[in-house]
Amino acid sequence: MAVRSTERTRPRSGREHRLEPYLFVALEGARLDAGGLRVALRGVASLRIGRGDTRALLHADSAAPELEIPDSRISSTHACIIQDGRQLVLADDGSTNGTLVNGARITRHALRDGDIVDLGRTVLLYRELEEPAGGGARSLDSSTIGGLDPGFTTLDPNLARQLQRLSLVARSQLPILILGETGSGKEMLAQALHAQSQRPGPFVPVNCGAIPQSLLESHLFGHVRGAFSGASRDEAGFVRAAHGGTLLLDEIGDLPLSSQTALLRVLQEREVRPVGSTQATKVDIRVLAATHMPLEELVARGAFRRDLYARLAGYPFVMPPLRERRTDLGLLVAALLSAGKLGPRRDLCIHGEAARALVRHDWPMNVRELEQCLHAAFVLAEGDMITIEDLPPALQVATPCEPAARSGPRDADARARFVALFAEHNGNVSALGRALRTSRSHVHRLMTRYKIAGKQ
Questions:
Q1: Alpha-carbon span 417 to 424, nearest angstrom
Q2: C-beta separation of 25 from 334 below 8 A
Q3: Residue 9 above 50 pLDDT?
Q4: Contact criterion met (CB below 8 Å) for 402 and 118
Q5: Which of 212, 219, 297, 381 sits a CA distance of 20 to 30 A from 115?
Q6: 102 with 90: CB under 8 angstroms?
Q7: Phi and psi for 274 in degrees, rounded to 5?
Q8: β pairing state of 246-250 and 286-291
Q9: For 314-332, what is each residue's pLDDT tens digit?
Q10: 204 pairs with which residues across the strands?
């Protein structure tokens, strides 16, 4: 009997959902530019995992597919996922370097949602994702979706469906409001939306929170010579600069009320009047807005105009934080490499322990933190290998995505490192957070995980 998706269904918005089991190649430590892969486990009786010359999912439509990964530390027949009753069980197949689950060596392990599996320098992630019951779970290799903008590329089937709908909106004139935490990739998504819109004009991003309030309207709407002290020439402003293209109003929640009124008029009338001028100029712009702030709460408090919110929120979209996109880590690393954001290109691989640390970290500062972390690792790495010591202190201790019950020898090493830092900073949570380059709440979670009492 082949394994089926978990038989738990429940209605959501009038549709039934069920848990679908997937295995993801989250990160190949031997090939950081490899992207990732998703294996649908519905209907699979057994999945053999071993080394191959290229990454490939063989016999994908059969009940016994085979996953091959080009990792020299993976045995030719390394491990197997099999059905055992209603459970999926991961079994080591006598491999040379062993199979680890959440840092502990195993011979046989009943898989649970969120399990991190190490094979050689490759990190796999087992997930049970809630999906519409009528949907068709399928496998997907990132190499088959190459060429798409990284802002629209994902292996998460739920996020893929949301992005597919967003892609339809991108081709319209409907304004889009992108919500999400700082550093989660909102501007990258906005650039992808502009590319999909096929508008001939430029993409013009404006950070509304980075412009002094006294200069904001001049920067947005432009000014004429002599409009104010220092205005020695006419300036078009960001709105007119985006004519024919897309204007991204980033951190729109920081826009003061006085400027909100002026912006509302531009959006309603599709014309802009430069500061100091009596003449209005027609503009053809597609408006995208982005913020990490809860705009609806700001509207309720009177800090953000309700009519402006209505103009901007034609199609709200929430960009998930990186901690909810661990399955896409390989895709994001490959995108950062191809964009040249990690410094001069080096052919580096990453040690298995360091690769697992990247996957298990909760990334409180999101993709921006990932970029800085890898950039530093590329600078610090000696030879051709990134090790755990090349990563920031916050990644050298286990994160709370691994339940304490799953701890093993590696987890004990991480606890020892955290205890040493805790003692060094005399239990000061703020100082420890700065040393780990993470948030106070993250430090408190680590203290709970490692059963360390703080100062009373």
A1: 11
A2: no
A3: no
A4: no
A5: 381
A6: no
A7: -60, 150
A8: parallel
A9: 999 999 999 999 999 999 9
A10: 247
